[in-house]
Amino acid sequence: MLIISLFFRRSPAALDNHRHYAALHGYRHVYVEAADIYESPSAQWLFRYETLLSPSFGFSSSRDPRQRWVSAIF
């Protein structure tokens, strides 16, 4: 599984919580800092979807049922 923490404002406590949750369950954790990038809500939503579909995070178009994803996006 994969936990993606994507923040448009800094939140150290939430990031620590995501890291702890991922470590507790043995999940991979990726942090994306976007606090200073996008102010427009529509641009933020687009960036979220681009991040989820990004090959750099291991996205695969495979329909293998063993591939399961968890995302935590704020």
Keywords:
disordered C terminus, 3 strands, alpha/beta, 3-stranded parallel sheet, 74 residues
Could you please describe the fold and organization of this structure?
The protein is an alpha/beta fold and 74 residues long. It has one domain. The chain has two helices and three strands. Strands 2-1-3 form a three-stranded parallel beta sheet, covered by helices on one side. The radius of gyration is 13 Å and the shape is flat. The protein starts with a strand and ends with a strand. The C terminus is likely disordered.
Domain count: the total is 1
Question: Which sequence of SSEs, written as H and E, runs from N to C?
Answer: EHEHE
- What is the β-strand count? 3
Outline the low-pLDDT stretches. 60-74
Radius of gyration in whole Å, from Cα? 13 Å
What structural class do helix, strand and pairing data support? alpha/beta
On the 0 to 100 scale, the average pLDDT is: 75
Largest sheet: 3 strands, parallel
Shape: flat
Strand order of the largest sheet: 2-1-3
Helicity level? 25-40%
Write a brief structural summary.
The protein is of the alpha/beta class and 74 residues long.
Task: Reconstruct the topology from this structure.
Layout: E1 2-7, H1 12-25, E2 28-33, H2 41-53, E3 72-73
